[in-house]
Each structure stands twice: as structure tokens, then as C-alpha cells.
Amino acid sequence: MDYSNFLTMKEELSLVAVMVILLVYDLAASKKALRYFQPVACVLFGIHTLLNIVPGTAAESFGGMYQYTPMMGIVKSILNVGTLIVLMQAAGWLRKEDTVHKRGEFFFLTLTTLLGMYFMISAGNFLFFFIGLETASIPMATLAAFDKYKRQSAEAGAKYILNAVFASGISLYGMSLLYGTTGTLYFDDMPVAVTGSALQIAAFVFFAAGLFFKISLVPFHLWTPDVYEGAPTPVTSYLSVISKGSAVFVLMTIFYKVFAPIAAQWQGILYGVIVVTITLANLFAIRQKNLKRFLAYSSVSQAGYIMLGVIGGTAMGMTSLVYYVLVYMVSNLAAFGVIGAIENRTGKLTFDDYNGLYSTHPKLSLVMTLAMFSLAGIPPFAGFFSKFFIFAAAAEQGYYVLVLIALLNTIISLYYYLLVVKAMFINKSDAPIGAFRSDNYTRISLAACSAGILLLGILSVVYDRISLFAYGMKQRSLRPVVPVRGFRR
Questions:
Q1: What is the Cα–Cα distance from 216 to 154, expressed in whole angstroms?
Q2: Among candidate residues 275, 273, 306, the one with its CA nearest the CA of residue 405
Q3: Could you give phi then psi for residue 350, rounded to 5 degrees?
Q4: pTM for this predicted structure
Q5: Distance (Å, rounded) from C-alpha 415 to C-alpha 420?
Q6: 473 falls in which pLDDT band (50, 70, 90)?
Q7: I want to staple 82 with a disulfide (CB 3.0 to 4.6 A). Which of 125, 286, 329, 484 is the partner?
């Protein structure tokens, strides 16, 4: 074997190096040195993120099993930034007496799941893709059950692993049917042999079920509210953003690499899934009283919106999808950061607990408001432009009715997102959550998320203005000059 193939996997090698250093540090360091485990881990992962933030050139290794493109590099960098924010927000929770001795395990498991997502994103072969899928899924179940002596956390881990195993089995069966009908496992070789037979349609349905589970699309979403509620809040935020973002990108890549010849069939399936996902998730989100369950149904709804970029299948759809994931990441992590900071100090998680929060925590209330406005798609925040671009990508392909349904559901989502803002600023409480000071890691992460929501919105406005100006200049330059005769003032 030519070991130079590994040089193409610079992100994976860099991440493995960080994992090995942290593992050795956790095992060999003294108790005094372990006090600095959190900053060391964040600095090392930050260096890894900066080293790989500039996309490289397209390449492949191991006969095409591993592939790399600049877009894949961008997606991995987005996941890196989100993971770094999650690791920082977990600092307060990891300092608790019942979790402080498990910091090393938390970081190692989290980075292992990220490594699996790297494999999924760069897979050029179904076998390599499945290895990445399982590498990402199995440690995630351990993270969900991380507070194993708490009933809800243990229950969340059990529900996640049982559903994940079932979904993986169905997806693997679909891959076996594809292999049986095409004779290959390579993405680039399959389209020639995909003819749209009944067996291949069934293979697509089985395969898609596994990824629909990771993205939490209806009807594969039933695990989401229970797992999100029971898992530790940093794990919930990681599960709702990083896992979902990687799965959506992989889904679009495989759909258009492998199943392009039967696009008409699976686009019809996806059309129905998007409508049902957005509508049901919004209706159920209105009924929630627990904020983590509320954000669980919100994430299901957001997954439906993200799939509008997939169904379009264009370069604009891919770009809009990646941008949507970036905006969703900073918005959702801001919301979970506020929830985690309050839960660590008070244990409160319901809407009623947030009544009058602005009177004691104006800064946290402001960050939560920015997150809710962005998730709802209110201008001029980043969430408005992410929805605009992804709606435009779907409308460009003629899905006008689908976009109209999504717009109507946006109005419903606006109602329940504003319920959180109403609780903090308008509802009165005789005993609001007491004042406290968040740790430095949480404050830095929330500042970064808030800046992301605002700056991405501003940059979107600037980009839109420049695009309109350039389009107008182009139209003016193409306009024929017709002399006007007999003109008099």
C-alpha cells in the first residue's frame, strides 16, 4: 500500500493528532495539570481548525474511496467552528462534581464522532461512507447517556442507540441492493448502472431512511424530542447542529452523484417528506413547554427547510444549503448556550422559568432574542437571508407550491419563536431566575454566535446589493443603443 495516500487526508490526520495528544494528556497528567485540560483542549482544537480553514485542491486517495473537494473542505471547517463552540459551552457542565472526572472521555468521544463525519463527507464509496456513519453514530449514543446516573440521560442513550441501529440496518440493506444491481460500491461508477428498476427504487428508499434518521426528517424524527431533552445540553446542541449539518451535505452529494438518473422519482418522495416535516414539526413545537423539546421540534422543522436546497439540485442549491447550515449553526448554538448556562446554575428549562428573565439577565436575554429572530427568519438577521437563498434555489427549479407551503409554515414558526421573547421581556414573574455570572468560555462562545448572526446578516445585505448592482450593469451593457430621432425638449 502507498502510504502517501494518507497525505490527502490532512483534516483527518490533524484531528487524530489532537485526539491522541488529549488522550495521553488525560491519562498521564497529574491532578494539578488536569485543571488546564479544558483550555489545552480548546487551544489544540482551535489550532486544528485554523490549519484547515483554507480549502485545498481537489484530490482523491485509495482508488477513489476517499475524495476531497474545496466544498468538502468548507463544510469540514464549518463543523470545526461549531464543534469548538460546543466544547467551550460545555466548560461549565464539565466542572460539575459528577462530570469533572469524565472531561477526557467527553472530548475524545466528541472528536471521534467528528472524525466519522469527516469520513462521511469525503466518502467516494459506500463501504467507506458506512464506516464513517457508524464512527459518528455509536459514540454519539455514549454522549447522550453521558450522565448515566440520571434516568433521562440513560433513557436518551438507549433510545438513540436502538433507533440508530435500526436505521443503520435498513440503510445497509439498501446499499446491499444497490451493490447487487450495479456491481460496484463506488459513487462515480454507479450512475451508469442505475436504471430506475423497482429494486433500485426500493434500495434508494432503504438507504435514504438511514440518513433521514440522522437529519430527523418525518417520520424518522420520533427519537428527537426525547433524546434532546434527556441528553446533556452540550450534547444536545452538538447533535442538533454538527451531526445534522454533516448528514445533510452527504445526503445531497450522494443523491446527485449516485441517484441522478432517477431524480424524478426521489424528488417526488422528497417533496412529500419536506411538506410533512415542516408542517408537523411546527405544529408540535407550539405545544411544547420544555425549551429543549421545543428546540428539538424546531430543529426538525429547520431540517425540512434545509432540504429545499437538496431538492433543487443546482450549484445555487448546494451553496444555499452550506450557507443555511452555517447560519443555523450560530443561531442554534446561541440558543443552546443560553439554555445551558441557565440550566447549569439553576436547573430550569421551561418557558415559565424564563418569565421576566430580562430583569436579571439582560445580556443572556438579548443573545436568546437574536437567536430566536434568526431562527424565525426575521430581517435583517442572518436567518432571513439563509431562508431567502434556499427558497430562491427551490423556486429556481419550479417548486413554487413547495416554497409557498414553506413560507406559510415560516409564519407559524414566527409565532412560537416569539413566545420565548415574550416570556423574557413581557411576561412578569415574582421570582425570576436569579442573577449569576457565566463562565468565560460561555461568554466568549455566546459573543461569537451573536457576532455571527449579525455579521452574516450584514454580509448578506452587502452581497445582495453588489449582486443587484452587477446584474443591473450587465443588463445596461447588453441593452441595444437605439438612436432617438426628432427629440425636442
A1: 20
A2: 275
A3: -100, 165
A4: 0.89
A5: 9
A6: very low
A7: 329
